[in-house]
């Protein structure tokens, strides 16, 4: 749903609730007027008192309806604003997810340029690489820290293969990280791909 459609939906919901509140109040006023004109016929004291009590009860009932409707509307506003905040937090997720392979290629290029020993080329590419990473970090991207020897956790790691552990210490643990994992805010948008020892 586009922002424009969402805004129109919010406006129409607000107008609908306002119309309901106005109807309830109009009905209460109309009923009070009817009872007031009927009471002016010189009726006895007892029926007039009961009519007043009836009017008070009706007014209380309408007040209660109004308060419930108002509370429902406040809950609706709170819920939609919370959903809107969540939407804005993850709005760039698709774009950032599509940039992750570019970031991986950049990391591989940095490794190869380091081997080439061309200091000027390395400096220039390093500047671009750092700027790119900082821009993504500013948008909420965070690299997940996974290294050799970490305990394997199926909740946050994706095991792509299992190999015989080089040492007893690495049994059931991460032996190698094939692809880095990333989080956007609190949500994992790409799980780190790891090799585990058996």
UniProtKB/TrEMBL annotation:
CDD domains membership: GrpE
Indicate where this protein resides in the cell: Cytoplasm
Has UniProt tagged this entry with the keyword Phosphoprotein? no
Q: Quote the biased-composition stretches of kind Basic and acidic residues, using this chain's numbering.
A: 1-21
Secretion signal, residue range per the UniProt entry: none
Q: Which Gene3D superfamilies match?
A: 3.90.20.20, Head domain of nucleotide exchange factor GrpE
Has keyword Lipoprotein? no
Keywords in alphabetical order: Chaperone, Cytoplasm, Stress response
SUPFAM superfamilies tied to this protein: Coiled-coil domain of nucleotide exchange factor GrpE (SSF58014), Head domain of nucleotide exchange factor GrpE (SSF51064)
What InterPro entries does this protein map onto?
Answer: GrpE, GrpE_CC, GrpE_head
Q: Where is this region: Disordered?
A: 1-57
The annotated subunit structure for this chain is: Homodimer.
Q: Family per UniProt?
A: Belongs to the GrpE family.
Q: What does this protein do?
A: Participates actively in the response to hyperosmotic and heat shock by preventing the aggregation of stress-denatured proteins, in association with DnaK and GrpE. It is the nucleotide exchange factor for DnaK and may function as a thermosensor. Unfolded proteins bind initially to DnaJ; upon interaction with the DnaJ-bound protein, DnaK hydrolyzes its bound ATP, resulting in the formation of a stable complex. GrpE releases ADP from DnaK; ATP binding to DnaK triggers the release of the substrate protein, thus completing the reaction cycle.
Under HAMAP family, the record lists: GrpE
Name of this chain's protein = Protein GrpE
Q: Supply the source organism for this entry.
A: Salinimicrobium oceani
């Amino acid at each position: 749903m586009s922002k424009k459609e969402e805004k129109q939906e919010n406006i129409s919901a607000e107008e609908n609730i306002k119309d309901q509140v106005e109807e309830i109040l109009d009905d209460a006023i109309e009923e009070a007027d009817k009872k007031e004109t009927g009471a002016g016929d010189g009726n006895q004291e007892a029926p007039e008192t009961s009519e007043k009590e009836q009017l008070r009860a009706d007014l209380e009932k309408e007040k209660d309806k109004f308060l419930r409707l108002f509370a429902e509307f406040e809950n609706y506003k709170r819920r939609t604003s919370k959903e809107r905040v969540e939407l804005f937090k993850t709005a760039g997720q698709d774009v950032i997810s599509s940039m992750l392979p570019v970031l991986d290629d950049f990391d591989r290029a940095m490794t190869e340029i380091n081997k080439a020993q061309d200091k000027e080329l390395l400096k220039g590419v390093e500047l671009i690489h750092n700027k790119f990473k900082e821009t993504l970090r500013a948008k909420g991207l965070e690299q997940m820290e996974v290294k050799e020897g970490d305990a394997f956790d199926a909740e946050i790691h994706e095991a792509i293969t299992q190999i015989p552990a080089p040492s007893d210490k690495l049994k059931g643990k991460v032996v190698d990280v094939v692809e880095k994992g990333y989080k956007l805010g609190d949500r994992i948008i790409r799980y780190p791909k790891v090799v585990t020892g058996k």
